[in-house]
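Why this split exists: single-chain examples teach little about how molecules sit against one another. For that reason, every record in the complexes split bundles all components of an assembly together and asks for one structure covering all of them. Below is a record exactly as it appears in the raw files.
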Amino acid sequence: MFRSLKSIPLVLVITFSAVASAGPLGIGSTATPEMIAGWDIDIRPDGAGLPHGEGSVAQGEGLYEAKCASCHGLFGEGEGRWPVLAGGDGTLDTLHPEKTVGSYWPYASTLWDYIHRAMPYTAPQSLTDEETYAISAYVLYLNDIVDEEFVANRETFARVKMPNEENFYVDNRPDAQNERCFKNCADPKTFEIVTTINGLTPTGHFKEDSGVAANHYEGNPSAASESGISKVMNNTKIVLSDKATVGKGVYDMACQACHNPGIAGAPKTGDKAAWVSRIDQGMDILNGHAINGYQGADGVMPAKGGNMSLSNDDVINAVAFMVESSR
Amino acid sequence: MGKIYEPSLPKLMEAIAAEARGMKGLDRRNFLKGGVAAVAGLASVQIIPKASASSNLPPNLPKWQSHLGPGVVSKPYGEPSEFEDLQRRTVPWLTVDAASSISMTPLQDLEGIITPSGLVFERYHGGIPNVDPDQHRLIIHGLVERPLVLTMEDLRRFPSVSEIRFIECPANGGMEWRGAQMEALQFTHGMLACCEWTGIKLSTLLDEVGVKPEGKWVLAEGADAAGMSRSIPLEKALDDTIIAWGQNGEALRPEQGYPLRMLNPGWEGNTSVKWLRRLEIGDQPWHHREETSKYTDLMPDGRARRFSWVQEANSVITSPCPEKPLKQAGFVEIRGFAWSGRGKIRAVDISFDGGVNWERTELKGLVLSKALTQFSYRTTWDGQPWLLQSRAIDETGYVQPTLKQLRDERGGWSIYHKNSIHTWNVMENGDVFNVQIS
C-alpha cells in the first residue's frame, strides 16, 4: 500500500489540472455545457435566455384554443376559478382589482418563461419554443398589447413593453407603525367588532354543530355538496378492472385537474348523470374524443387532456377508470 | 356583520356579557353570528360521547395495564397515538385544484416550537414530485468560475449546519384582510411551521463554485411540475440561506422538497424553493411569475410592491382558541407563539379588552432568531368575556401593528403579509370566536 502511494501524486496533479481550478473543498463534478443547456430554461426581461424560432398571433390562436382555453377561456376570461389572463385595465386601484397579464404583469418575458416552464398545467415543459412564442404572442394580443400581425421572436419579444411596468417598486416596509403602549391605548367607543360568517370554514373536527370536515379536497364549495370522485370512492365499493386500475394512475396525474371539479364542461368523475349519455355512445367514440380532442356543446376536451406525452393506451386506461367510476 | 358598541370599556365588556347571557348551550355558540341561518341547523346536533372509559378509572385497573402491549418494532416507523387527531387541513374553496393548493398546520395541537414534519403546512404549485435521490442533481452555473453538478452524496460531504427556523407562507392570514372569515386558528394562522433544518449554508456552496464579481442574484429552481423559480439577492444567499436535506432529524418529507430544498430564514415561504435542482448566478433578477404576478403587494393607489420578502413580526394565542375553548373557571395559562423574520422576539404583550390595556407576558423555552417563540401569561378566568389579543415586539424594536394600522397603509384588498394583532372573543361559556376590531 505505502509503496504504491508514490505514484499517486502524479495522478492527482493530472486530474486537478484537467478540471482547471477546483473549489476550496474539491467536491462535485464539472457541469458540462450540455447538461446546463438542458436545464437552463429561464428567461429575463432583457431577453436573455430567449431561444431562436418564432411564432405568430395567428398560429397562437389555434394552439391557445387547443391547449389553454379549457381553463383560461377562449378570450382569456378564465373558466370557473382558473386564472383570468386578459382584461382588468383600470381596475388596480379599485375595490375589485383584476390582475391579468395585461393589467398587472410588468414584463412580457415572464409570460414566455412561465408558459414554457409550467404550462399546460397537466403537461409542463411539453411546448416547443415555436409554440411558446405563438401562444405568448396570442395572450399579448388578447390583452391588446400587440396587433394581430405580430410575430414573436428573440428580437421582437424582448422589445415588448408592458403597460404596468412602471407601477412596481421595491418593498419599502416597515410601513405600519405601532407603539408599545400599555394603558388606554385604544378608544372602545370607536370599536366595531366584526365576527365570522358561519359555515365558510370547515369546523367539523372541533364543533359538533358544524357541516364539513376538512380532511379531503373537493375543489370548491359547490363541489362539496355534489357527488365528487372522493365521495364515490370512499362511500361505494367499486371493483375496478385491471385496465381501470392502471388508468387511475394516469387519471391522478393528467385528468383529475378538470374531471374532479368538472371545469370547462368536463363531466365530473363519479357523476352518473353527466356520464350516462357519454357512456351510451360506446367506448370507441369516448376513447377517440379523449385521444384526439373534442369540441362539445359544454366545452373543450383537449387532445389527451393537453398532455401529449401520454400514449393512446394511457388515455384509454384513464377513460376506463372514469367510466367504471361513473356508472 | 359588524356590531358598533357605543359605550365606555366597562360598558362594552358588560354589553358583550349581557348579549351572551340568557342564551343556552349551542345558542351561545352562535350568538356572535348575528342572524346567520345557523340556528336552523341546531335540531340535527348529535353529541357523540367519547369512548366509554369509566372502567379504566381509579380505583379500577386500567385495561391496558392488565396485559402485555406490542413489543419493539411493532411499528418500525412510529406514529401518533390513535387517540390523537393530528391533521393538516385545508379550506377547499380557497383554490381551484389540490395540486396547486395549500393545507394548514394544526397550530392548536402543537406542543413546543418544533412542528412535526408530517404536520408542516403544504403549498405546491404543481403537486409533489416523486424524486429519486440517486437521480437528483443540483447544477450551479451562470456567473461562476466553476459550474458544478452535485449528487446528494456530494452535497452531504460539505460541512453542514442544523438550525431551527420558522417557515411561513406570505398568504398566512390573507383570507382575513377583508374581514373575519376563518372560524379556526388552524385556518387563520396555520400556513406556518418551525423545524430544525439540516444542510449546507449556501455561502459554502457559492465559495465552491466561485461567484464572479458581477454576480448579484441567484435563481433557485425546483424539479416539480411548476418548475418553481425565484430570484434571491446574493446578499441573502451569503447571509443565512441554507440548502437543506434534513428536517427534524430525518430526510426532508416529499411534501417539503425531498431530497433537497432551499430555506431562506425569515422570508416568505415561496422563496424557499423545494425539490431544488438548479442555482444560476446572474447580474439581475429574473422577474418570474411568482415574483411579479404573484407574491407582490398591490397597494390602494394601484401601484405594487415587489420583492417583499421579509415576514414581519407576528403572534397569535394558541390556547385558548376556537379549537381549544376554556372549559373550566379558575387558573388558566394563556399560551401562544410569536415569530419575526427580522430576528429574535424581544417581548410579547397581551390584552384582555381588545387592545385598550396591555400586560407583559413571559417568553418560555428557547428564544431563537427567526423561530417560533412561546409566550405565557398566568391568570384566572371566572366566566367573564374577553377580547383577547397578543402583540409581538422583535429585536429590531418593531411592534406588531393593529389591523387598522395595516389597513390604513395597504387597503383592505391585499393578499399577503397580514401580520396584524389578532383578536379572539372568549365567551362566558368559554367558547372562542375569531373577531376583528376595527
